[in-house]
Write a structure and sequence with these properties.
Layout: E1 26-34, H1 43-57, E2 73-75, E3 84-94, H2 100-108, E4 115-123, H3 130-133, E5 134-144, H4 149-161, E6 166-171, E7 174-179, E8 184-189, E9 196-204, H5 213-220, E10 227-235, H6 240-247
Helix pairs in contact: 1-2
């Protein structure tokens, strides 16, 4: 995550209040943890949780236009129910500027157990949407295994050596058919206690396709995972707008 220095001289250190509506003047990118306590809530419930916390913190949220305006909050990639994460990303648009440290302090006090802000940085208002920037997701997957570790390594080696692996699974009463090998950028065996397996994997996660860790495990012929942890979301490296933001001195590596 980048850190950003603002060029505007007057900037409140704490939260500001503003009327509903107004043009956004700041866009903050939040990296947050989603732990065991909230891993079974839905995407919609998570967004409601954030909206409630932001309102209680008194930050000046920007709202969409139209008959039913809603806060301009944007998650990078919704997390499946039952999965924990230490790498969730969300953009928040504000009508009054606030220092990232002040935002983090005020909003953190309103969050429930299991949701923790890890980092806040300012990003350019004109940069591409957060969702369009996501490319890959890195996971650690653990589950029970009665065999020997060499069997897991052999399954991983066979998977990686294949040019394509036709796959199908049922989702929302519909059979999905695709090449699961094409969704896996990397796959490896991690250390695990006796009687279990642990895998690391980097899966495609963009606007065209999303790899699902439990399906990769099934394709390997291993038992269903007991725990899935999303550890990183990988964003696109460059864009014309991002480079312009850097040249203007508003984006510090």
């Amino acid at each position: 995550m980048t850190t950003v220095a603002s060029s505007k001289p007057q900037r409140p250190d704490g939260p500001g209040r503003a009327p509903v509506g107004g043009r956004p003047s700041e866009r903050l990118r939040i990296r947050f943890r989603r732990g065991e306590e909230v891993k079974y809530i839905t995407h919609l419930d998570l967004m409601r949780l954030w909206e409630r916390a932001l309102r209680r913190a008194g930050v000046a949220l920007a709202y969409s236009e139209g008959h039913t305006p809603h806060p301009r909050l944007s998650l990078a990639a919704p997390l499946a129910v039952g999965v924990i994460s230490s790498a969730e990303l969300m953009d928040v648009f504000l009508t009054q500027r606030i220092a990232p440290s002040g935002f983090m302090r005020s909003v953190s006090a309103q969050l429930p157990a299991g949701v923790e802000i890890l980092e806040v940085a300012e990003v350019g208002l004109g940069l591409p949407s957060l969702q369009s920037e996501v490319r890959w997701a890195r996971y650690r997957v653990e589950g029970p295994f009665a065999g020997v570790p060499e069997e897991v390594r052999s399954a991983v080696d066979r998977f990686l050596a294949a040019e394509s692996i036709p796959w199908e699974h049922m989702r929302e009463k519909e059979v999905r058919r695709y090449d699961i090998r094409a969704l896996v950028r990397d796959l490896w065996v991690d250390d695990a206690p006796s009687g279990s397996y642990a895998l690391g994997m980097v899966l495609r996660c963009d606007n065209t396709a999303t790899g699902r860790p439990e399906q990769v495990v099934a394709a390997l012929g291993l038992p269903e995972p007991a725990a899935i942890h999303r550890q990183e979301l990988v964003l696109a490296g460059t864009s014309p707008a991002r480079e312009a933001w850097r040249r203007a001195g508003r984006f510090v590596e």
